[in-house]
Design a protein that fits this description.
Number of strands: 9
Strand content: 15-25%
Distance between the termini: 27 Å
Radius of gyration: 25 Å
Largest sheet: 4 strands, antiparallel
Helix content: 40-55%
């Protein structure tokens, strides 16, 4: 104990002595992965989201079938050669076939990257932003995604909080986030998220890439999550959260568990724990 007491510099750093403070209490969710890689690390909105009928590309990237410069030049040379009679027809057809083969490979590579982006797991930051925006849309919080803060503790746990709000709003956000990432109990509304498998190397990966490039890649399954209690009291609040969820995570409309479809989801997914996280709510002074 005497030795620890002599570590004044370390203690001052832990207590953040001399740093500005708000003299306010905030609720913080401490989240730890039970299995490494359960959540992703992205802090921005997803660029490619799996949908029920294919991939939703949201970042305006180059389309899989946009001609590669080499392919465009080869096609131009082949067409000009055929029109001007600069070479035998056979050579023109071979050039065209080679260009199409290259373009097929380019589209497959681009499609595989689409599938890889779509397969990324949502991060704690993205989930927190969806909860914050859902609360703001329901007029239950004055702040949205911009106020979400994520830090990593000394032992590797995530710490998520909403800054610049009252203690009551901070507690509301922390409770809602805890409900979303915890095993499903008995929510009034549930939300889907469709998932695709990450492409593998080799011929199988090329096939996956071509399926994504042609719009034929379909979800490998769907995962369901609870709508937080604070946002499940009314249908409009639940759908507002669904819109925020789709923006930050990706998914469909909220489904009422009192409906036949919702009841089926609740029966088959009650107790499911897709994130495999351990959460603890703590009060922090800031």
């Amino acid at each position: 104990m005497l030795v620890r007491a002599e570590r004044r510099a370390d203690i001052a750093a832990l207590w953040r002595v001399g740093e500005p403070y708000d003299d306010a209490v905030a609720q913080v969710v401490r989240i730890r992965e039970r299995q490494p890689g359960t959540v992703g690390g992205d802090v921005a909105e997803p660029t490619v989201v799996p949908g029920q009928r294919g991939l939703d590309v949201r970042d305006g990237r180059t389309g899989p079938w946009r001609p590669h410069p080499v392919v465009a030049l080869a096609l131009l040379a082949g067409v000009l050669g055929a029109l001007l009679g600069l070479g035998p027809l056979t050579e023109g057809l071979l050039t065209l076939a080679a260009a199409m083969g290259i373009q097929l490979g380019v589209a497959s590579v681009r499609g595989r990257e689409l599938a890889r982006s779509a397969a990324r797991r949502p991060s704690i930051h993205q989930i927190g932003c969806a909860v914050a925006d859902g609360l703001q849309a329901a007029e239950l919080s004055p702040a949205g995604a911009d106020a979400v803060r994520i830090s990593i503790g000394a032992t590797g746990e995530y710490r998520c909080s909403l800054t610049g709000v009252s203690q009551a709003v901070s507690e509301r956000f922390a409770t809602a986030l805890d409900e979303v990432v915890s095993p499903m109990a008995a929510p009034r509304y549930v939300l889907p998220r469709w998932v695709v498998d990450a492409p593998v190397a080799g011929p199988s990966g090329l096939v996956t890439g071509l399926a994504a490039a042609t719009g034929l890649l379909r979800p490998a399954g769907e995962v369901w999550y609870p709508v937080p209690t604070a946002l499940g009291t009314r249908a409009d609040r639940a759908q507002g959260f669904a819109a925020a969820w789709d923006r930050w995570v990706g998914g469909g409309e909220a489904v009422y568990t009192g409906s036949p479809r919702g009841e089926g989801v609740l029966v088959t997914h009650r107790g499911s724990d897709p994130f495999a996280l351990t959460t603890v709510l703590r009060v922090h002074w800031r």
